[in-house]
């Protein structure tokens, strides 16, 4: 008997690139109840269909594009597309996200996910026009930039409204740091390399279909009000794109290959000069689909194409090269066309420069190497994206390149975790919640783990109490932890473990629903005023889908998805020995406390002391089939009875209702917030 599907289309596209087969496949609604959507459903597919023996460049590896459950509905700032696969850099689950317009267009074309398997014998692109789906020749797009590719496809298909996700030369040449570029957003962390390996140049989508929500009138009215509140809220959106004062990053992040802190670098003169330059080349600010926040900076540097700045590429390139902002805007025009990740690529290039300066790389490997930092970056970027000479080694990322080069290069690899480059930070004393997030995250980047809990305590007890009283997104225990937290002290082990768990849980929620982290999981740390949180997201889900879900139910879905991703990585060899930050990430370490805390965290999660989800945990989460497979492979013995510790979101005394309003604030900047609360 047919049952109406709400909020989702109920159909996936299955594309076998090896033989050109295209299938429209109806999906099981039970999977929505268990995993919501996005990376949850993608993880289930990868667990079921990609054996641990298959590497990233195997035809058996899947590349999955998923629109979040509520993407394409009227829910404001809900537009995220998740891209999931197995990473060539780590051999673990690779998860990436991008915003923009692609996910909503895919939903309106009639699909929740696109699942690619196999490898095309030639370069191709996929064209989705509602029910018409074609694999088309892309030989004429070979070597073209990502933005150029999108424009050429729109012209070829004679429709400027088409949404395109494409790779550049970096993806075609399978650079491990290759990105997938789309309009004002991009997906990184290995997914571009897999797209290139499958010889898939681009995906073009045009959708004009409707899909239904369960309670349209109430849902729309609520979304309209919420959109207006998000627009007025200073706590939501990516402030990095629109704030002029960036002292926080420039004075605290590390420069070069994550080795040099330039304290007090920022000045008013520098800020004014960079502001003037930005306004000179700025075209406009732009937002993603159905979002009231204009977080994306559109620029046209002298002699370069017009493009949209993505994430913190605004700072990572010049901080790696010891250059200034005009250099960043210029090299980003190249880097985004080539399709390279703005965290990994600058560090990899800076790593090569350090090796040259210390005599490990020579003129033999770097013939005609320029004398200046900026010219060296352009030189190495070209070598990198073409895999020419030393670029063929660097294309595998810092960890692998250091070991291929040898001659002591390994000691210059000091900013990778699980073989992946991290955000460039070198700090003072170890921070225990962040130690756990860095160690245990299966998402390979701290900005995909942190965010719900503030980074610093509030000194004034009155202000601290006021903050806690107005902190509508926090379960009660976190208010207690925050009230007990004094400046320049560590949160307790109990607090540290819970903070890590809450932070990662909210990202797994966003990555299944499709809500933007800058209005949800990432923004709670600065001011505590995120528009989406564990209490109001279920209400939106229920109105859109007809489900009956509360905060505890949603937390359980996120926990299920988290453990499923963990099981994928464990089946591929992940163990406790891999869960460590770089040795010099913090200058002062406490190894005994760190390891004791890691053991407590594993116990809290219901994992073994080697970081493997126990049979009891997996069974309780409805992942008994995962436990059976881990037992069959000898990874679990089947007698593990430690189970995760469940803390209800709701207080028995004061049951929270689904508060929809957004925390108010008259004035807020990221820099001022950090200065006040240091």
UniProtKB/TrEMBL annotation:
InterPro entries named among the record's database cross-references: Ald_Fedxn_OxRdtase_dom2, Ald_Fedxn_OxRdtase_dom3, Ald_Fedxn_OxRdtase_N, Ald_Fedxn_OxRdtase_N_sf, OxRdtase_Ald_Fedxn_C, Tungsten_al_ferr_oxy-like_C, W-dependent_AOR
EC assignment: 1.2.7.-
Keyword Oxidoreductase annotated: yes
Cofactor: tungstopterin; [4Fe-4S] cluster
Residue stretches making up the Aldehyde ferredoxin oxidoreductase N-terminal domain: 9-209
Keywords: 4Fe-4S, Iron, Iron-sulfur, Metal-binding, Oxidoreductase
Tagged with keyword Iron: yes
Example of a GO MF term: electron transfer activity
Broadest EC class assigned to this enzyme: oxidoreductase
Highest taxon, organism lineage: Bacteria
Family recorded in the similarity comment: Belongs to the AOR/FOR family.
Name used for this protein in its record: Aldehyde dehydrogenase (Ferredoxin), chain A
Organism annotation: Syntrophus aciditrophicus (strain SB)
């Amino acid at each position: 008997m047919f049952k109406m599907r709400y909020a989702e289309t109920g159909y996936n596209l299955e594309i076998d690139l090896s033989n050109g087969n295209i299938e429209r496949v109806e999906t099981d609604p039970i999977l929505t109840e268990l995993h919501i959507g996005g990376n949850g459903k993608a993880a289930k597919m990868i667990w079921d269909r990609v054996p641990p023996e298959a590497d990233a460049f195997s035809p058996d590896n899947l590349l999955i594009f998923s629109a979040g459950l509520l993407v394409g509905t009227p829910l404001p700032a809900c537009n995220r597309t998740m891209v999931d696969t197995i990473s060539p850099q780590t051999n673990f689950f690779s998860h990436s996200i991008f915003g923009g317009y692609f996910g909503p267009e895919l939903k309106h074309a009639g699909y929740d996910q696109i699942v690619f398997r196999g490898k095309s014998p030639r370069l191709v692109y996929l064209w989705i026009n509602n029910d018409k789906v074609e694999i088309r020749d892309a030989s004429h797009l070979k070597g073209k930039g990502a933005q150029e590719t999108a424009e050429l496809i729109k012209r070829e298909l004679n429709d400027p409204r088409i949404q395109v996700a494409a790779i550049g030369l970096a993806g075609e040449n399978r650079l491990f740091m290759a990105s997938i570029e789309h309009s004002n957003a991009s997906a990184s962390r290995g997914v571009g390399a897999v797209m290139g390996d499958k010889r898939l140049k681009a995906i073009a989508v045009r959708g004009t279909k409707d899909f239904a929500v369960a309670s349209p009138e109430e849902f729309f009215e609520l979304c309209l009000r919420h959109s207006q509140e998000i627009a007025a809220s200073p706590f939501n959106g990516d402030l990095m794109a629109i704030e002029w004062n960036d002292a926080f990053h420039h004075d605290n992040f590390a420069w070069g290959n994550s080795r040099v802190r330039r304290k007090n670098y920022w000045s008013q003169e520098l800020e004014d000069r960079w502001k003037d330059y930005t306004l000179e080349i700025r075209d406009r600010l732009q937002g993603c689909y159905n979002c009231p926040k204009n977080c994306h900076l559109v620029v046209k540097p002298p002699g370069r194409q017009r493009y949209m700045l993505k994430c913190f590429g605004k700072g990572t390139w010049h901080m790696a090269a010891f250059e200034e902002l005009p250099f960043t805007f210029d090299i980003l025009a190249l880097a985004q066309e080539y399709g390279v990740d703005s965290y990994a690529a600058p560090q990899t290039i800076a790593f090569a420069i350090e090796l040259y300066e210390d005599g490990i790389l020579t003129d033999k490997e770097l013939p005609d190497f320029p004398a200046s930092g900026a010219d060296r970056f352009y030189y190495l970027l070209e070598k990198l994206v073409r895999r020419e000479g030393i670029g063929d080694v660097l294309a595998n990322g810092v960890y692998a390149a250091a070991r291929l080069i040898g001659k002591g290069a390994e000691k210059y690899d000091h900013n990778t975790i699980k073989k992946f480059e991290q955000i460039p930070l070198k700090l003072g004393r170890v921070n225990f919640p962040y130690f756990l997030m860095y160690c245990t995250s299966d998402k390979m980047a701290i900005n995909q783990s942190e965010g719900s809990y503030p980074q610093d305590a509030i000194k004034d007890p009155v202000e601290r109490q006021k903050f806690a009283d107005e902190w509508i997104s926090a379960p009660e225990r976190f208010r207690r932890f925050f009230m007990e937290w004094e400046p320049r002290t560590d949160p307790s082990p109990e607090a540290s473990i819970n903070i890590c768990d809450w932070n990662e849980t909210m990202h797994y929620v966003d990555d299944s629903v499709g809500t933007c982290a800058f209005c949800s999981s990432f923004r709670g740390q600065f001011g505590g005023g995120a528009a989406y949180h564990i209490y109001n997201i279920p209400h939106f889900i229920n109105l859109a889908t007809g489900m009956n879900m509360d905060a505890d139910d949603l937390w359980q879905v996120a926990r299920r998805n988290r453990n499923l991703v963990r099981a994928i990585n464990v089946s591929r060899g992940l163990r406790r020995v891999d869960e460590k930050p770089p040795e010099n990430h913090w200058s002062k370490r406490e190894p005994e406390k760190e390891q004791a805390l890691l053991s407590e965290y594993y116990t809290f999660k219901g994992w073994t002391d080697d970081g493997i989800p126990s049979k009891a945990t997996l069974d309780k989460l409805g992942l008994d089939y995962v436990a059976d497979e881990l037992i069959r492979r000898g990874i679990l013995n089947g007698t593990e009875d430690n189970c995760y510790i469940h803390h209800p979101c709701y207080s028995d005394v004061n049951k929270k209702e689904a508060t929809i309003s957004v925390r108010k604030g008259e004035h807020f900047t990221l820099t001022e917030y950090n200065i006040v609360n240091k």
